Amino acid sequence: MKFCSNCAAAVVKRVPPGDNLPRWVCDQCGEIHYQNPRMVVGTVPEHEGRILLCRRAIEPRYGYWTLPAGFMENDETTGQAALRETLEEAGARIELGAPFSMISVPYVNQVHIFYRARLLDLDFKPGEETLEVMLCEEARIPWKEIAFRTVAATLRHWFADRGRGAFAFHAEDILVR
Amino acid sequence: MKFCSNCAAAVVKRVPPGDNLPRWVCDQCGEIHYQNPRMVVGTVPEHEGRILLCRRAIEPRYGYWTLPAGFMENDETTGQAALRETLEEAGARIELGAPFSMISVPYVNQVHIFYRARLLDLDFKPGEETLEVMLCEEARIPWKEIAFRTVAATLRHWFADRGRGAFAFHAEDILVR
Q: Does A103 touch chain B (CB under 8 A)?
């Protein structure tokens, strides 16, 4: 059972007039409670060819390695979200570069966006949601312990692009859980 | 006054433990009701150098011209959202190209993403939220009657890129209302 956040009446899931998808509708106050995908925004922070990785101190994927990233908040831009998450999770100050990857993950209703970034100093340190932070060259990336497939895909694109000497923008989808 | 969608108790706005932003928190069931930006996804549909524009049949900006675009839904990818909105608003079948623009609009908590696209046929027709659809060359774009600044910015980038013979990916922000 779900309730209306405006008037506390019970809501029902049905297709509103003029729509073609079922929504949570409040018959008391008329509000339609839409649900939309969320954006996860992060960075690929680089220093002299090595990439900064964070080991997660939270579920899901506790103990696995990830790029600094997190849910975009209201009242910020994608770039501000990328800077904030990099500072929060890795204590890292960066110069933000271009958007690098955009990966839809529809089975969790998320879109992941990663920016290129350059570390401004080496004074990074784990934030509250991070166990440890390391700078990692390509040969030492712990591919079997990467937390999320969007992170692995982004890292693979980054090293491939570096190998051919040109960074592009990569858009793709991960459709199967 | 706002209510918990899980248990119908009144929620309060405060900073949860370990967080640094105020959230709607339910003290009865413990749920934290996060609010996040929404994605608006659309296309720049082209046919022989002309761009398909839609005149809006709904508020906001009733009667103004826009590119086909709308809120991304759960259970779809950004590309599927772009195809769906182009079909719903303009009745237009397209071949989807590369992502072309990504524009944060933090004062309305939105991120707008437009893809390049090529019309597959000329059998477009206005959908329920559209008054009319037209194919428009650069000299005839109704710049003063464009519904949203993200649409105007995307169109300007498109014609500038076409002018120099190379299409890039454009990321920017519109910070002031």
A: no
Q: Is B80 on the interface with A (CB under 8 A)?
A: yes
Amino acid occupying residue A163? G
The model's pLDDT over B6-38, given as tens digits with 9 standing for 90+, comes to 999 999 999 998 888 899 999 999 999 999 999
- pLDDT at position B18: 82
Contact of B150 with B70, CB cutoff 8 Å: no
DSSP annotation string for A46-92: EETTEEEEEEESSSSSTT-EE-SEEEPPTT--HHHHHHHHHHHHH--
Q: Which residues of B touch A4 (CB under 8 A)?
A: 3, 5
- Mean per-residue pLDDT of chain B: 96
Helix (H) or strand (E) holding B80: helix B78-90
Residues contacting A48, CB < 8 A, separation 6+ = none
The Cα-based distances of A174 to A158, B113, B144, B160 in angstroms read 18, 18, 40, 33
Q: What confidence tens digit (pLDDT) does each residue in B102-142 have?
A: 999 999 999 999 999 999 999 999 999 999 999 999 999 99
Confidence category of residue B1, pLDDT binned at 50, 70, 90: confident
Full-model pTM: 0.95
A104/A99 Cα distance (integer angstroms) = 15
Task: Establish, for the pair of chains A and B, how many residue pairs have beta carbons separated by less than 8 Å.
Answer: 114
pLDDT, position B19: 86
List the structure tokens of B78.
Answer: 């950004």
User: Per the CB < 8 Å rule, is B74 touching A128?
Assistant: no
Q: A105 to each of A110, A174, B79, B100, how far by Cα in Å?
A: 5, 5, 12, 20
- Which helix (H) or strand (E) covers residue A42, if one does? strand A38-47
Question: B155: exposed, middle or buried (C-beta count within 10 Å: 0-12, 13-18, 19+)?
Answer: buried
Assembly ipTM? 0.95
Per-residue pLDDT tens digits for A16-48 = 988 888 999 999 999 999 999 999 999 999 999
Distance, in Å, from the CA atom of B40 to the CA atom of B49, rounded to the nearest integer, reads 24
